[in-house]
Each structure stands twice: as C-alpha cells, then as structure tokens.
Amino acid sequence: xxxxxxxxxxxxxxxxxxxxxxxxxxxxxxxxxxxxxxxxxxxxxxxxxxxxxxxxxxxxxxxxxxxxxxxxxxxxxxxxxxxxxxxxxxxxxxxxxxxxxxxxxxxxxxxxxxxxxxxxxxxxxxxxxxxxxxxxxxxxxxxxxxxxxxxxxxxxxxxxxxxxxxxxxxxxxxxxxxxxxxxxxxxxxxxxxxxxxxxxxxxxxxxxxxxxxxxxxxxxxxxxxxxxxxxxxxxxxxxxxxxxxxxxxxxxxxxxxxxx
Amino acid sequence: xxxxxxxxxxxxxxxxxxxxxxxxxxxxxxxxxxxxxxxxxxxxxxxxxxxxxxxxxxxxxxxxxxxxxxxxxxxxxxxxxxxxxxxxxxxxxxxxxxxxxxxxxxxxxxxxxxxxxxxxxxxxxxxxxxxxxxxxxxxxxxxxxxxxx
Lengths: 260, 149
Prior knowledge:
The complex is a heterodimer. By secondary structure, chain A is mostly helical. Chain A has one domain. In chain A, 66% of the residues lie in helices and 4% in strands. Chain A has a three-stranded mixed beta sheet with strand order 1-3-2. The longest helix of chain A has 38 residues, at 181-218. Chain A starts with a helix and ends with a helix. By secondary structure, chain B is an alpha+beta fold. Chain B has a single domain (2-148), classed as Hypothetical protein apc22750. Chain B (Translation Initiation Factor IF3). Chain B contains three helices and four strands. A four-stranded mixed beta sheet of chain B has the order 1-3-4-2. The mean pLDDT of chain B is 86. At the A-B interface, helix 1, helix 2 and helix 8 of A face helix 1, helix 2 and helix 3 of B.
C-alpha cells in the first residue's frame, strides 16, 4: 500500500470526526443549570401569582377553603390537660393582638402522642403540640413564642400559598416532562430544593411575627432566645445541611430574632 | 431529599465507570484498526466487481455488535431531548458500535484479499416503547470476502 495513504488512514483512526469534542460532564452541568434557571423563574412566577390572589382574598373565601380541608383531618388525640389549658390561656391573649386572627378559626389546641419536639398548624387553624415538646418545655414565654409562630403561619395564610404554588407548578411541570422519565426526576429534585427555599422563607416570617407578638405580650424575647439555644444544643445538624431542610438552621433563627 | 443524593451518586459513579470503559474500548479499537490497516481491503461501493485473477474462495463475512450507553449518557440524552440539539453522549456510543462491527467483519475475513459490497446496518433489538426497554443499538456489518488463489 501507498505510504501516504497509510498515513492518512492512521490519521483518520487517531482523529475521529464522528465523536463530539465537547466534554460530557460540562454539558451535563450546563443542562442542569439551564433547567434549574427555568424552574427558578417558574417558581418566582407561581409564587407571585399565588401571593397576589391569596393576600387579596376575603376572609369568607378563606373560611370556605379551610372548611373544605377540615374534613380530611381527624386527629386521634387527647384533649383536656393542664398543659393545654396553659396554652389556651396564652392563645386567648395572643388572638386579640392581631386583626388577622380574629373572627376566623377558634384555634383549638390538641396534644399528639409523639416523642419528637414539634408543633404545627393545619389549614383550618387547629394547632397541634407533641407530647415531647410539652414535656421538655414548661416556660410560658417559650410556649407563647411557639404558639405565636404557628399562629403566624395562619395569619400569613402560608398553607394556602404553599398549596396554590404547588398546584401551578405541578401543572406546568407535568406538561413539560410528559413521558420523559429522567426529565421528570431532575425537575422534581430541583423543585424540591426550590420549595424548601420558600418553606424556609415562610418559617423566617413566622419567627419574626412570633417575635413581635412576644414583645407585645412580655416586652422582651428572652424566652424565644432561650428556646433556640435549647434547640441548638439538641440538634447537631451541620450548618450547610439547612439547604436540604424545611426550616432555617437554629443559628440563623436565633440571629434573626436577636436583631429585632 | 435522599432521592437527589442517590441520583447524584448513581450519575457520578456511572459517569466515571462509563468514561473508563469508553476510553479502554477506543484504545482497543484503535489498536486493532492499526493492526488491520493493510488487509483485507474493504470496498463499500461496487455492485459488480471484475477481476482477472483466479479466485480461491468467496464467502459471506459479518460483524455484529450490540452497544448501549451507560446510565449517565442516557440521562443526559433524555434531558437534552427537551431542548434539542446533537446528542453528543450517544455519538461516541454509535461510533464505537460501528467501528467494532466493521472490525469484527474484517477480523472474520482474515487472510482474504478483499471484502466487496460491504454494508452497515443498524437496528433496535428490543421494544422501543415497552416498559423495560433498554436504550441500545445493534450494528451489523456484512460483505463478501474474496480470496485469490
């Protein structure tokens, strides 16, 4: 065979034109960040729309929606307890302080048989405290802060905002990722992170609200500071993990209420 | 949350293993291509072919290869499917498959002088739309090997 021809063949073998020269890893990162940017824009859009309508919604409409939800919540809990009575007294002090809380739900308080330290409010204004929390915390100021935090969620209509955002987003996402399984997984993972971000924002606002209420009631927020210091001792979660959590890190929450 | 971490781990592992396997495969293909650079000569054209020399043997030679991308490649390709454009992750897979198939055909025709009327075909083996479909491609190279006396 001809020498130059052989050289050309060797060149063809070495320099392959059929394979893209771009780095696959970089391409992957560009793709993911593109999808993340799109989703982020979608979240801002959905959040703006949801907040716009829900903030302007009348109280009657709110009550109607809440009553629709209340059917699905059947707590198996025990009522009538000394702890509950203390909480109910605090509640009766807090509710007259804010117009947003008046004339709506009666905010019944229940106790759940769970060991973890937690409290939450359902969309119809029912507030739950876990046994673990009531066992660990006896101080009235701290309980007032926790209760005010949960009432803050209710006053800000956080549940309705979350639901409306989820409805808009899941509708758009299901159109985008129709039939494409891998795209679906990616979008859902990213949007999980996004919704956690919004959840942390809501928690911060509820903290600030509770802080304000506690100041009005007692003229100081030492109870809340004590509470977060107590939580800080309890959980050993590293700071960076807060991006995967529904709540901001305890350190940040402490900082937030100490500023005011 | 554990879903994302698991997904990232799987993607990372398959990216590394896939790159290693692909690199080794390309090295292997190059070595074999250089070894076979002189014989047999492959002719992809001519439907009719004439020679004055005496022919000892005529036979059908085939080379087959079924190839699939790794999890990472499939994942990136299906993301890219949304925006469109070249699926670069699959380009290398197809290239590897084609070269492997042609190489196998030529290796089968060792000792022959020519392979005439060589053709390359590609097919999907499994059900593309089924639940358990594996993204893969089967490539078949075939031709007529001719050995002179």
